[in-house]
Amino acid sequence: MALSIQNALLHALLFFLLCPFAEWALHRYIMHRPFRILFWWLRYPFRSHAQVHHDIYRADHTYHAQPGDTGEKIPMAWWNSLVIVAIGCTMISSYFNYFGWKWLPLALVIMFGYYGVYEYIHWCMHLPRQRRMELWWAFKKLNGHHLLHHRYMHKNFNVVFPLADLVFGTLMIRSPIAFAQARGPAVPDVQPLHEATPRG
Ligand SMILES: [Zn+2]
Ligand SMILES: [Zn+2]
Fold first, then answer.
1. pLDDT digits (tens, 9 = 90+) for 79-96
2. How far is the CA of 130 from the centre of ligand 1 (A)?
3. What value, to the nearest 5°, has the Cα angle with vertex 30 and ends 50 and 32?
4. pLDDT for res 45
5. What pLDDT does residue 189 have?
6. pLDDT over 50 (residue 198)
7. How many Å lie between the centroid of ligand 1 and the Cα of residue 185?
8. What pTM value is reported for the model?
9. Which ligand has the shortest distance to the CA of 126?
10. What is the distance in A from the centroid of ligand 2 to the CA of 57?
């Protein structure tokens, strides 16, 4: 019994660690790249994310939903989660063939859970409402991480867990140049250090 719990935890950890890499690849190669000739239907995520979401929410004060904005363009369409998890499970089908399809439900729980966390924190980032969670240090860190993505679209593709940004060299902690960033109790200062440090 103890061994099977250990096994489940190990598989759960592996499934969890796959999620930021899937998030990174999806965000970088599907949501920020327009497919022109083949795969015309792949333009949908580019349009709705790179052209609409990034156009409404920038890195200045418009990072936060402005008066009258109900946040309609913050989340992805509900069915995106089904497509993404189905593709993810298909891509690791050989894993299930080897270790057993009994691990599929665990993978589904973790993948949908990761997706749910993504949607919720992304919603809170752009539509802050002084929730308790917004004052949690980890949320603030991730908020700064995502704010920089809205300033530099080729950086910080992870929203939930920036492991793939770290591994693939797209992690940005602070902006290299000063810019008029969004401010608020849940938004950290991401300006260059020499700009933030008082002189004299
Ligand atoms: Zn993006
Ligand atoms: Zn965003």
1. 999 999 999 999 999 999
2. 24
3. 30
4. 86
5. 97
6. no
7. 23
8. 0.91
9. 2
10. 7
Ligand 2 mean position, distance from CA 147 (Å):
8
Separation of 35 CA from ligand 2 center, angstroms?
Answer: 21
**pLDDT at residue 4, as a whole number:** 87
CB contact at 8 A, 121 and 136: no
91 C-alpha vs ligand 1 centroid, how far in Å? 23
Distance 122 CA to ligand 2 centre (A): 6
Measured in angstroms, how far is the CA atom of residue 52 from the centroid of ligand 2?
10
* Pair 190, 175: CB distance under 8 Å: yes
- The Cα 176–Cα 158 span in angstroms is 19
In DSSP notation, 34-88 reads: ---SS-GGGHHHHIIIIIIIHHHS-SSGGGSPPTT--STTSSPPTHHHHHHHHHH
Identify the pLDDT of residue 38.
59
User: Tokens for 195?
Assistant: 């700009």
Quick check: 200 pLDDT over 60?
no
pLDDT in tens, 110-137: 999 999 999 999 999 999 999 999 999 9
What is the Å distance from ligand 1's center to 144 Cα? Answer: 14
Distance CA 166, CA 158 (A): 10
Ligand nearest to the CA of 49: 1
Cα gap 99→84, rounded to integer Å? 22
**Which position has the token pair 């239907």?**
41
